[in-house]
Design brief:
Length: 310
């Protein structure tokens, strides 16, 4: 029995069909691979572009947070831009704000050390220390503590007291100082020749004769002067008299000093007589005599002299 071999490969129709199917399959594979490869590149490009855009947005966002908002500068008005910040104004560092000048301190007015006394009735005026006590008119009288009144030294009666300045008792602490004064008297009943003399005699003169006056210059005026001294075991007193004739009257100036004794006890020292009288003489040196009107002279003769201080 013979064997028959059948092969489809040798069939032209089948072969052609197979070839066409193989070609179609290969063609489809090529198209599919091409399409897949093309989509992969687009997706990759799109992905890269997306990441790049996202990175750019993140960078812009970060820069916008760090940089100041320009819109605030754009909308700020000139008035607000030039206004001083409250913190700077509070610290007082703004150069455009003028500091208000400090109020000047009021210095206390110092009162003058000396006081002017002026009497229109007698024409007498002089300066004396403010701390000293002054009495004038009928109350004016020269006293030495413990020694009573100090008499006037005119050769004729008719004298009146004008003013008295007393030195405070505590002016010389630690010494035997008791009292001191400066006194002004006036006598219109004396002539110029009579004014040159004094009623009291020097106690040291054994003959009891009046002591001739000594002419001295005090300030710009020439005066006659004499003194009287008395002492005991417990006290001593000295008075100095000065006369000057002016305005038709005799003016008398008396400087007096009293101490508590010669001996020093308990550390008490003698007060310097020269120092005390030098202080009183400074008052005498300031005395001036002004012209007196007739009506004041008449009033003085009738009622005495009334002075005042400024």
């Amino acid at each position: 029995m013979a064997t028959i071999w059948k092969s489809t490969n040798h069939n032209p129709a089948n072969q052609n069909s197979a070839n066409r199917n193989s070609a179609r399959h290969e063609t489809g594979n090529i198209i599919s691979e091409t399409t897949f490869s093309s989509w992969s590149r687009q997706q990759k490009l799109a992905t890269v572009a997306g990441f790049a855009l996202l990175g750019l947005l993140l960078e812009v966002s970060a820069c916008s947070k760090q940089s100041p908002n320009p819109s605030l500068v754009a909308v700020s008005s000139p008035a607000s831009a030039s206004a001083t910040p409250p913190a700077v104004a509070a610290l007082g560092t703004s150069p455009t704000v003028a500091a208000s000048p400090a109020a000047p301190k009021k210095l206390p007015k110092k009162r003058p050390a000396d006081v002017l006394y002026r009497d229109p009735n007698s024409g007498v005026s002089f300066l004396y220390p403010r701390k000293f006590a002054l009495t004038s008119g009928d109350q004016a009288q020269s006293l030495l503590a413990g020694a009573g009144d100090v008499p006037m030294n005119f050769v004729e009666p008719g004298g009146v007291a004008v003013a008295t300045v007393s030195v405070p008792s505590g002016s010389y602490p630690g010494t035997d100082f008791a009292s001191a004064f400066f006194n002004v008297n006036l006598n219109r009943g004396l002539s110029e020749q009579q004014c040159e003399h004094f009623a009291f005699v020097d106690t040291d003169n054994a003959d009891g004769e009046p002591v001739d006056a000594e002419k001295v210059r005090v300030g710009s005026s020439e005066m006659e002067t004499t003194s009287n001294f008395s002492a005991s075991a417990i006290e001593q007193a000295e008075t100095q008299y000065y006369h000057r004739y002016e305005n038709g009257a005799c003016y008398e100036y008396v400087l007096g000093l009293r101490t508590e004794g010669f001996a020093t006890e308990g550390g008490i020292e003698h007060v310097s007589l020269d120092a005390v009288f030098a202080r009183l003489e400074k008052i005498l040196a300031t005395v001036t005599i002004n012209p007196v009107e007739e009506e004041h002279v008449t009033e003085q003769t009738a009622n005495g002299i009334v002075g005042g201080k400024e």
